[in-house]
Amino acid sequence: MQNAQGGALAPPLAVEPFYLPAGDEVELFEQCHHNKLAVMLKGPTGCGKTRFVEHMAWKLGRPLVTISCHDDLTASDLIGRYLIRHDRTIWQDGPLTAAVRAGALCYLDEVVEARQDTVVVLHSLTDYRRTLSIDKTGEMLEAAPGFQLVVSYNPGYQRMLKDLKPSTRQRFVTLDFEFPPPDREAEIVVRESGIEPSQARALVELAHKLRGLQDRGLAEVPSTRLLVATAQLIGRGIPVRRACRVALIAPLSDDAALVGAMTDLVELTFP
Ligand SMILES: Nc1ncnc2c1ncn2[C@@H]1O[C@H](COP(=O)(O)OP(=O)(O)OP(=O)(O)O)[C@@H](O)[C@H]1O
Ligand SMILES: [Mg+2]
Questions:
Q1: Ligand 1, CB cutoff 6 Å, lining residues
Q2: Which ligand lies nearest the alpha carbon of 45?
Q3: Torsion sign across C-alpha atoms 159, 164, 166, 172
Q4: Which residue's C-alpha comes closest to atom 15 of ligand 1?
Q5: Ligand sitting nearest the alpha carbon of 46
Q6: End-to-end CA distance of the chain
Q7: How far apart are CA 196 and CA 204, in angstroms?
């Protein structure tokens, strides 16, 4: 089935997406799924939210529909619209409707970016009704078994959770995501890049020092995603300091003083 963003509804994944849990989030999510509870994932960029949802979709054997929210996203973008094709008018489901029909996990990334009049269409799906009203066709759609709504939001960005109405917020079980503890983060880096464990541990140690620079004005701290990217370059033979420069430091800041401080830390870690 085509959705309004032009993408296809992906079938359940056959291969397990690697996800290393930080705590009880897998079990909590499973219980939410079985109890038809919607889930909100809160945490900084690159800390594993998307990977977690992919893993859970695989584990629960559900298709996954991902929607990136932005402030131009309308209710029609989610639900669907009539399209003119040749001399006919045809209805095309939006990604939310496709997910509701298929009993998919529907993941709305950065939900706070969406306008409130868009977000409210989710309400009837998150309570006992589990219905989606499609005004344009007059259809009242009941969610297929297995349908679950998952949203994410990054608390560091300008728009804050307070921008979501309490009536929206209180519809979601909320799981807090942080960067994994050092030993686990190193394990993730090894699994995702194939570099030596000792080198992964050194990269994680460096990341901790860089994260400490937040007090000195570093707006965005290095995520697990950046560590993985750096490690992948190292794994392909790029010299360590060069890889750190392009994949770890340059994406974080343009400020000469901060870049200098970060470069010093790289040189201390990898003399
Ligand atoms: N717990 C984890 N298990 C396995 N891989 C992880 C984990 N945490 C982070 N990663 C790695 O970090 C990368 C980035 O994670 P992901 O894309 O899930 O971040 P995110 O939280 O969705 O970020 P954003 O808010 O920017 O969308 C993944 O592609 C994966 O390589
Ligand atoms: Mg993501």
A1: 18-20, 43, 45-51, 109, 154, 180, 188, 192, 224-225, 228
A2: 1
A3: negative
A4: 48
A5: 1
A6: 54
A7: 13
